[in-house]
């Protein structure tokens, strides 16, 4: 790679009090290059634009300044932190960089890998972590849209996942704009673009973001594409015009409840047929909504708040198959069988909370919104977690993740105390009064 | 428990080099420069392939001199590819090379469903056989019509007109465009073009990238089969201005 900025150099920039050390180039794309840099001991990332890119997108600078002023919607965005301009003359030896400018953002930690790795089946990740990533994604766009902004280019390529936690990072935030203002030139990525944008009938907006978000969620949850079914099989050369038909003029959801003409092929599209049944009907319905009526009527698309609610319910219902150990997500009123091995799923032990019902499975968590309906769904700071006993995995316990001491009583009426960080055995537990509210054990 | 071991079904993307190995390529290190450029581009190409879950990138190469022959006959996954050096010597049977590729692009052996193939023609001279017949034969294949066809002119003696015919109609706008022959006047520029074709173009042909509204860049309403990515900013390299370094 021909780096625009010299690796190893310390360079002054307008607006920075100290010089910025260019550690190394990380990569380059169509718009510019990204470098790992150091500023006063802090490691950051610097994106530097090609002059040609700046020329094509005259509002880029203003958009970045606006984003910097408004601040990140939440910490899942690698948000622009500061705009950097060269000091006249300082980049004299690097003429290619001299005509450009750049911005600083957080440096993505190595644990985060491109979401395309997941879509390509090249990532070991649990279903719970995928669902958590989906929740974070819905939450991130919820916050972004609440700020009156839209992202415009939602795609697998702009999302990174930490497979061990389900954490996400959203990069390439330089197209973000005030919704409706839409000054930039980006339209989105085919396959993710809302039909009205793909077909040139509308500009990207928060409404079209909702469509792209639904596509991205579907691709994360199923490792398949919502529109690739029989209609894709009929396409010999998958090129631009073919994509425009598949995702635009002739788009039809592969699981459309009313129109079966684009169902997945059992061999070519097996991923969809295996993964779609994993999810509860409540979550499936949101996709049917966004890719059914929402395909042509943007006001019909599933809202970020609806996604958050359905995904957090799904996480609450997580139950491990007693036969094969797979993660399953049966609704309380529709138990059914394990999607993986077919074994009927017994009613699980559940925890009744003031505003929720959580199945007792190792890894499931009690969140603040289970106790207080006013806080809105959030999964970042659980109050308690179900954990297996370190030496006897069959023993399930509830771990206090709060900072205060909880008291409870067993089925035989004995009272217990649960200090922060401690775990109590569920099998004898009747109820715990946590700092947030009562936790009642419901036996099937 | 892990996410089920499934993935989005992918399609083959055939990437075919057509390399001029005529005697003139032996001069001034051109043959070595081309071998180096292709070899150096492979890790980047493999990386792009890995990032594109929708594509299975398969590489082949034709050499042409006194005759055309497959240099890399088997469509090889880029991750497994080891580039064997091409050697120069002979005349320029470019038309014959197009005939070979035409045979490869009919179904079978072409799969029933695929991504648009990418054909990269590299030459430093004039065809010495019936180029027109070869091109006409190639362009009768639907997969050739759908293919992204690029041409790289090495040095100043390449026949730009012939290369333009291979690519297709010349764009109306002036200036550098991937729909014109790319002129590599030194080894650095050559390497950049090869890298661009094997990464950015492969990316564009296999997985759609972000779209912008600029008319020429292939917005959603452009007639292009595959919107081509911007050319590499070779102008960045100041050595570009000092004239040929290697030849
Ligand atoms: N904050 C960051 N921390 C670490 N790596 C980053 C960061 N931002 C971008 N990168 C990496 O730098 C490279 C180029 O970045 P990016 O894709 O944003 O460039 P681009 O010009 O926008 O490309 P594209 O054409 O895909 O939009 C990529 O490999 C990306 O993963
Ligand atoms: Zn099972």
Task: Walk me through the topology.
The complex is a heterodimer of chains A (444) and B (247).
Chain A: E1 10-11, E2 13-14, E3 20-28, E4 32-39, E5 42-49, H1 51-56, H2 60-70, E6 82-86, H3 95-98, E7 102-106, E8 113-114, H4 115-119, H5 127-146, E9 149-150, E10 159-162, E11 167-170, E12 177-178, E13 186-188, H6 195-198, H7 206-222, H8 230-233, H9 240-249, H10 270-275, H11 281-291, H12 293-296, H13 304-316, E14 319-320, E15 327-328, E16 350-353, E17 356-359, E18 365-366, E19 384-388, E20 396-400, E21 406-410, E22 415-418, E23 423-425, E24 429-433, E25 438-442
Antiparallel strand pairs in A: 1-3, 2-6, 3-4, 4-5, 5-7, 6-7, 8-10, 9-12, 10-11, 14-15, 16-17, 16-25, 18-19, 19-20, 20-23, 21-22, 21-24, 24-25
Helix pairs in contact in A: 5-7, 5-13
Chain B: E1 11-20, H1 30-51, E2 55-64, E3 68-77, H2 94-104, E4 118-123, H3 131-139, H4 142-146, E5 148-154, H5 160-167, E6 182-184, H6 187-206, E7 211-212
Parallel strand pairs in B: 1-2, 1-4, 4-5, 5-6
Antiparallel strand pairs in B: 2-3
Helix pairs in contact in B: 1-6, 2-3
The complex binds adenosine-5'-triphosphate and zinc ion.
